[in-house]
Amino acid sequence: MLNFTTEKLLGGHSHIETNTSDTLITPTDQSIACLSVRFPLEFDFSNPNAQILVRKQIEHHMRLCTIASSGFDTLFSTVGSEPLLAEAASHFMTESETSPIRELSRHLDKNCINHGKRGELVAVLLIMQARDALSRRSMGERSVNVCQFLETLLGPSFVHTAMTSPSKVHSEDYKKSLADNFNDARIWFNHVLKIRKTKLINVQHLWKFLTRGAMILCANNQPGVDIVIPVCLTGNLLSPLTTTAIIIQVKNSSTFGERIRGYLFDAMDPFEINLFDKGMDPRPIIRMVFALASEVDVVKYADGPPRTTRTTQSSQKLDKYTSYDIWCAGISQKIFPVIRDNEVTPYRQILHLENPHLLIRVNK
Asked: How many Cα neighbours within 13 Å face the side chain of 291?
């Protein structure tokens, strides 16, 4: 089935045609098709070549046409949430040893692809790279353990964080380490789905994204959060009552460096962003900030206020929710060991495109 799906995605071919005179199906079109079904690529229609590129993606590479003007002069399109297509693209790129970030950096300047504003595209590429690496080690198992995923993403930096207590805690039952509270928690995603309605990041809907294998890129101007990874807290028992999330805010400004900015975590209040309905008993969440433009590479854990075992009025005060807060500053193999040696520069090049005022650091 994967072979058949791959051929449909590549326009009838089983591999990228590097030596071909076919102008209808080119290596560039095939590569963009594989990237598009996994990542929410959008096209800049101020570029005169955009319509041609989109038309070819619709005709030969499974892209969906949503609106067409009379005479087909203007086409609007999207990519559906298709786990099988995404798995075929992932399998194909792994087998052909193709790096998504290198392919994307190669195409950005040439093919009218929007690269975002604040580093969200780089963030989802990093997250997906960690998921793919863990999935390969798990012999292709669909769902993966949350703690194993974070360790794959952050490497040794996560080991200490996994044993820390919550930054905020609302229940005596959750006064445990991240590793204990998320011991049985699992995630599954192989593609990114960009949503248009902010209400969809509520747990009443998040479990549906888990069934589709989708990570969520939030709507434009969504306050407080940019990326949501749905989590099933109790292994295979999936329902709104067992669903929680890893929520991520991405920054691509040198204003945000190694120093933790607590107000960014405060903006990710799960009740304010509508992750949980008011009055619900919330499950623990993991909040992360990616400060990708930081000149210092470091992972920090945001400690909560000191707690004492003495029975006093202050020690009995609990928070509205339980969260583990992680600050990831920089973009390097020190912070994200899933980055390969030949991928550091492409990652930084894309960040530079998103923020031209940044200087591209040379990896030493």
From this structure: 22
Q: What was the pLDDT predicted at 131?
A: 93
| Under 8 Å between Cβ of 293 and 251 | yes
* Identity of the residue numbered 56: K
Q: How much is the pLDDT for 213?
A: 94
- Which sign does the torsion angle of CA 109, 110, 114, 120 carry? negative
Q: For residue 40, which amino acid is it?
A: P
First to last CA, the chain: 44
**Lookup: tokens for 45:** 């229609």
Res 22: pLDDT: 57
Its pTM stands at 0.88
Strand, coil or helix: 205: helix
C-alpha 139 chain-centroid distance: 22
| CA distances (Å), origin 248, targets 38, 76, 269, 293 | 19, 29, 12, 16
Residues of the chain with pLDDT under 50: 306-315, 359-360, 362-364
Residue 28's closest CA among 56, 4, 58? 56
Digit-coded pLDDT (tens) for 199-228:
999 999 999 999 999 999 998 888 899 999
Q: Six-digit token pair at 146?
A: 């949350």
Q: Are 351 and 252 in contact (CB under 8 A)?
A: yes
Q: How far is 147 from 134, CA to CA, in rounded Å?
A: 11
